């Protein structure tokens, strides 16, 4: 057992804090730009597609959209649009939304969840395009989703309105087909088929800032989905938070989860090589995972990107939900299991055992791959970051301390600087 653990130091990255102050007003203002009242008839039903991502204040955003739709005479209902998440079951997907704060009580619209789909045809590469029957039978469709870099492929259109349509709204079968033929090659042609054959009224595209707070809302008419996704992806890339160093001996990740990233731990942050192979950039040589979020409900897709974890984490896994997600995407590496040791202390000891000089270890600890304003680093990393004017260093050393069960105690987080405030 190691006894002389290195001290750590809290650093703060100065991110762009530009954000939307009044969420409901911003949604109403964007919706008004679409001038949709003349395109609908009172009493018509509108399916609002909502996914499984942990978008900040998602319930407030969806409730504001529901209110806008009711104001023009429509009858909205929520359709869980998350491909195979929630164990690919109707009850599981409704439960995922409930854990994200979405229910009839919170958004003033019923949640209608089942896994039935219909086919809309086939695109040129051979992929069948499926859509939820509830969505197909609605008089109108509205999509609500965040635009950001995807965790498994690169294109000019990645996560956003089009992916919500083609993967999320396709339920399990639709998601399976899109992944089978390659998301990068399938999303845009499949979206064109769906936009042509479904009564899509609009989409609300969301971009969050580096603090996981709404930065931009954009209403897109059906014909604008691809262009809006493409434009906002560039903004999202500029705002994506990252760890400010390229080389670490050890990276400690407090938690992973589907509400944090579609990949559980965002490979855009920790390195695509951990999922897809290729150049080790950034190169964080040993990754220790300490926990899985409650909102993930045991879906541990992405755990394969960790090297070391604990038995306590493994006990939280819902293997059926995890494997269903992986079998749908075909990304087997995402669910390969790391070495699970008896405690967090044992995991850290194992990582440090492979560092030549522990007194000079390059180590960082983060809350998760989304919340990166505050992180903790060893002295070797501090010295590298001193010249960076966008980073504040707290010179107070913080010892690594474990409780009686070998769990690493949390580090300080100033109350006045809580994430996203």
Task: Outline the secondary-structure elements.
Layout: E1 8-13, H1 23-34, E2 45-50, H2 58-71, E3 75-80, H3 90-99, H4 104-107, E4 117-122, E5 128-132, H5 133-136, E6 140-146, H6 161-168, H7 171-180, H8 183-197, E7 200-208, E8 214-220, H9 225-239, E9 247-253, H10 267-270, H11 273-276, E10 283-289, E11 308-310, H12 311-315, H13 319-329, E12 339-341, H14 344-352, E13 363-366, E14 374-378, H15 379-385, E15 391-393
Parallel strand pairs: 2-3, 2-6, 6-7, 9-10, 9-13, 11-12
Antiparallel strand pairs: 1-14, 1-15, 4-5, 7-8, 13-14
Helix pairs in contact: 1-2, 6-8
Measured as a percent range, the helix fraction is 25-40%
> Which CATH class of the largest domain is shown?
Alpha Beta
How many helical elements? 15
How much β-strand is present in the residues?
A: 15-25%
Total DSSP E strands: 15
**Strand pairing plus helix content: what structural class?**
alpha/beta
Largest beta sheet: strand ordering: 10-9-13-14-1-15
In angstroms, what is the radius of gyration? Answer: 22 Å
The whole-number mean of residue pLDDT values reads 93
Can you give a write-up of this model?
- It is a single chain.
- The protein has two domains: 8-15 and 241-417, no CATH class; 35-239, 3-Layer(aba) Sandwich (Rossmann fold).
- Helices cover 31% and strands 20% of the residues.
- It has helices at residues 23-34, 58-71, 90-99, 104-107, 133-136, 161-168, 171-180, 183-197, 225-239, 267-270, 273-276, 311-315, 319-329, 344-352, 379-385; strands at 8-13, 45-50, 75-80, 117-122, 128-132, 140-146, 200-208, 214-220, 247-253, 283-289, 308-310, 339-341, 363-366, 374-378, 391-393.
- The strands form four sheets. It has a six-stranded mixed beta sheet with strand order 10-9-13-14-1-15. Strands 3-2-6-7-8 form a five-stranded mixed beta sheet, with helices on both faces. Strands 4-5 form a two-stranded antiparallel sheet.
- Strand 4 and strand 5 (128-132) form a beta hairpin.
- Helix 1 packs across helix 2 (58-71) and helix 6 (161-168) crosses helix 8.
- The model is unreliable at 416-421 (pLDDT under 50).
């Amino acid at each position: 057992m190691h006894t002389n653990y290195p001290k750590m130091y809290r650093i703060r990255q100065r991110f762009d804090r530009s954000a939307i102050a009044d969420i409901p007003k911003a949604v109403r203002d964007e919706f008004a730009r679409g001038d949709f009242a003349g395109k609908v008839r009172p009493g018509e039903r509108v399916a609002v597609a909502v996914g499984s991502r942990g978008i900040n204040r998602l319930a407030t955003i969806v409730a504001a959209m529901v209110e806008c739709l009711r104001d023009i005479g429509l009858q909205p209902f929520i359709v869980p649009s998350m491909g195979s998440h929630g164990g690919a079951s109707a009850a599981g997907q409704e439960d995922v939304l409930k854990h994200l704060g979405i229910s009839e009580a919170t958004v003033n619209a019923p949640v209608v969840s089942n896994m039935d789909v219909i086919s809309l045809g086939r695109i040129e590469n051979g992929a069948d395009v499926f859509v939820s029957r509830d969505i197909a039978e609605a008089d109108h469709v509205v999509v609500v989703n965040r635009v950001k870099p995807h965790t498994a492929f690169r294109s000019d259109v990645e996560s956003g309105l089009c992916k919500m349509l083609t993967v999320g709204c396709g339920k399990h079968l639709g998601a399976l087909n899109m992944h089978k033929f390659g998301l990068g090659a399938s999303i845009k042609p499949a979206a064109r088929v769906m936009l042509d054959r479904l009564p899509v009224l609009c989409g609300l595209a969301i971009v969050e800032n580096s603090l996981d707070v709404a930065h931009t809302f954009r209403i897109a008419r059906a014909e604008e989905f691809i262009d809006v996704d493409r434009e906002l992806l560039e903004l999202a890339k500029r705002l994506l938070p990252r760890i400010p160093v390229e080389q670490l001996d050890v990276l400690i990740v407090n938690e992973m989860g589907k509400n944090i990233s579609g990949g559980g731990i965002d490979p855009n942050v920790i390195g695509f090589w951990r999922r897809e192979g290729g150049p080790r950039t950034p190169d964080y040589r040993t990754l220790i995972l300490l926990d899985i979020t409650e909102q993930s409900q045991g879906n541990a897709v992405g755990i394969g990107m960790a090297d070391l974890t604990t038995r306590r984490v493994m006990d939280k896994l819902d293997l059926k939900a995890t494997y269903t997600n992986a079998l749908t995407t075909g990304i087997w590496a995402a669910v390969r299991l790391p070495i699970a040791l008896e405690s967090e202390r044992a995991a850290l000891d194992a990582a440090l055992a492979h560092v030549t000089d522990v007194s000079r270890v390059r180590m960082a600890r983060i809350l998760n791959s989304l919340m990166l304003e505050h992180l903790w680093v060893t002295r070797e990393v501090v010295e590298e970051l001193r010249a960076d004017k966008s980073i504040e260093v707290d010179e107070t050393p913080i010892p690594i301390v474990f409780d009686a069960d070998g769990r690493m105690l949390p580090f300080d987080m100033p109350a006045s600087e809580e994430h996203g405030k």
